[in-house]
Design brief:
By secondary structure, this protein is an alpha+beta fold. It has a single domain (3-115), classed as Nuclear Transport Factor 2, Chain: A (Roll), CATH 3.10.450.50. 32% of the residues lie in helices and 44% in strands. The chain contains three helices and six strands. It has a six-stranded mixed beta sheet. The mean pLDDT is 95.
């Protein structure tokens, strides 16, 4: 891997570790000030821009899905981009989806999420 790809993989790993712990402060520390998150909320997802909006989205998500589990199934990293294929499971079932990350300055700048419907 090259230095940019290594840095992107490390940034996504820091984000994922914080996310798995449902640690909103650590998740936000892993994201840029001008971060963007696009959720999978039906029908067209939601778009959240900036630390305050993204933080509120994560806080609500963690509150509403405390027992749910994300499992990364595959990760592809190149340059400032990462693609993570995942499975999201809860007591009543599961879905599969993909996140498209963009990293800038060692932090997640964008996390765009898509789910199989």
């Amino acid at each position: 891997m090259d230095a940019a790809t290594d840095g992107t993989a490390a940034a996504v790993a820091r984000f994922a570790y914080a996310f798995d712990r449902q640690d909103v402060d650590a998740v936000m520390a892993a994201m840029t000030v001008d971060c963007v998150f696009e959720s999978t909320a039906p029908p067209n997802g939601g778009r959240y821009e900036g630390q305050d909006a993204v933080r509120a989205s994560w806080a609500a998500f963690f509150r509403d899905s405390a027992d749910a589990v994300f499992e990364a199934e595959e990760q592809i990293v190149s340059g400032d981009r990462a693609i993570v294929l995942w499975r999201y499971s809860w007591a009543g079932g599961h879905v599969r989806g993909v996140d498209v990350f963009r990293v800038r300055g060692g932090l997640v700048a964008e996390k765009l999420s898509y789910v199989k419907g």
